[in-house]
Amino acid sequence: MRLGFSLPVFGKAAATPGGIARYAKAAEQAGAASLWVGDRLLSPVAPVVAYPGYDTMPEEFHTAQDPFTALAIAAAVTENAVLGSSTINATQYQPANFARLLTSIDVASNGRLLPGLGIGWSPDEYDAVGIPMSERGKRLDDLLDLLGKWWTQDLVSHTGIGYTIAETHVDLKPVRKPPVHLAGFGEKALRRVAERADGWLPVWSVPEQFPATVLTDTLAKLRAGAEQAGRDPQALGVALRVNAAPEAKPEAIAESVVQIVSTLEPDEVFVDLTYLTSSVEEHIDLTGRLLELTAQG
């Protein structure tokens, strides 16, 4: 099993000076196959839309590291681990800067970047960056168009939504074209995954909140859609995030991970440690424990 873990980008552990570098290095040495970031710009006191399952925002999001900085740090102190995002709210960023950031991180990591992108759900965050939330779907399609050019063409020009890129030299290319994975369960989101993405970003919960057939059936639908679009359905990757409740025990997490991996057969799977630890030391200890338990399972 290729088991990965979230970097300490949220919560008390995220405020530890040098914590991301220390954890990333220790996690890879312990056997972590991948390291992941999430993306949270704001933690509003009175959010327009509360975080799913909460009346407001989880306390862990009061402290949030920049995802690109975290990935760059991890790239500098590791050699083999896949560096992923699940997810970066891609449409909240200026597209040309976003393309350059992803390319730079892929080069820094020698081709280990797995960019998982989404469109977010927080009106407060869209207001903060001055982007209409109603445009997020078409902005994601536009960004995918731009990334396709940025990573394959030496001369790039593009007319996007609210911006224009005059023909320009873009000689910095990724080591290999990063496999863009997209999040979502809605009809439009799933159609975009099937027709445009290199992979899908599903989520599993411990304890489970829905049967595994929800994921397997959706993946079958995605692959059928990819085939209808003239794409290789088996080339559609899967990077699974496992969200564990704060009270979940390591043994229960490991057992659930082993079961869902055997059922879904994802290419990558990682456990989000955000709600399970409050220090970098706990992050490191739990990583080692879960690697040990899943190896036994």
Automatic annotation (TrEMBL):
EC number: 1.-.-.-
Keywords (A to Z) from UniProt: Oxidoreductase
GO MF terms held by the record: oxidoreductase activity, acting on paired donors, with incorporation or reduction of molecular oxygen
Source organism superkingdom: Bacteria
Signal peptide as annotated in the record: none
Pfam (any one): Bac_luciferase
SUPFAM superfamilies in alphabetical order: Bacterial luciferase-like
InterPro entries named among the record's database cross-references: F420-G6PD/mer, Lucif-like_OxRdtase_Rv2161c, Luciferase-like_dom, Luciferase-like_sf
Residue ranges occupied by any Luciferase-like domain in the UniProt entry: 5-262
EC primary class: oxidoreductase
Stated name of the protein: TIGR03619 family F420-dependent LLM class oxidoreductase
Native source organism of the sequence: Amycolatopsis eburnea
